[in-house]
Amino acid sequence: MNARSMTDTDRRYVVSTWAQSARYGGMAKRDRFRLVDRIIDGGARVVVLANGPTVHAWACGEGDTLHYVYVPPELRRNGVARIAIHAALGSYPARISVTHPWPRPSARFCYAPHILLREVA
């Protein structure tokens, strides 16, 4: 599995998995897709982990802020998210600000919804 910047072909998979897997408190499906597009188009870096044309996981972030990371269920608990986060942020900091809630509470992550709202406003 190699890390690479997102290609136009990868984008369809990234936007689809993000918009469909994220929790947005009742936001309509089309609005979730628009939100994800605005974040990506706003300059966020998206890195995919892939073998050839097959994307296995991806992460999106800016600076030390992680917007979202996606790993399919069958690849979870193998360190794939850590690899994707490291590739997207350039390192794996001790504490990461995130713009979407992390699935499990952790001292390593800090939920920062104001960053998302500032970005897409």
List keywords for this structure.
disordered C terminus; globular; six-stranded mixed beta sheet; alpha/beta; 37% helix; Aminopeptidase
What is the structure about, briefly put?
The protein has helices spanning 8-21, 29-41, 80-89, 113-120, and strands at residues 2-5, 45-51, 54-62, 65-70, 96-98, 109-111. By secondary structure, the chain is of the alpha/beta class. Strands 1-2-3-4-5-6 form a 6-stranded mixed sheet, with helices on both faces.
Pattern of helices and strands: EHHEEEHEEH
- Tell the overall outline: globular
Tell me the major beta sheet: 6 strands, mixed
What is the arithmetic mean of pLDDT? Answer: 78
Whole-angstrom Rg = 13 Å
Please state roughly what percent of the residues sit in beta strands, choosing from under 5%, 5-15%, 15-25%, 25-35%, 35-45% or over 45%. 25-35%
CATH class: Alpha Beta
CATH architecture: 3-Layer(aba) Sandwich
- Low-pLDDT windows of residues: 106-121
Tell me the number of strands.
6
Enumerate how many helices there are, as a single number. 4
Kindly report the spatial arrangement of strands forming the biggest sheet: 1-2-3-4-5-6
Q: Look at the helices and sheets and give the structural class.
A: alpha/beta
Q: What is the percent of helical residues?
A: 25-40%
Give the count of structural domains.
1
- Looking at the structure, the CATH topology is Aminopeptidase
CATH homology superfamily: Gcn5-related N-acetyltransferase (GNAT)
Distance N to C terminus? 35 Å
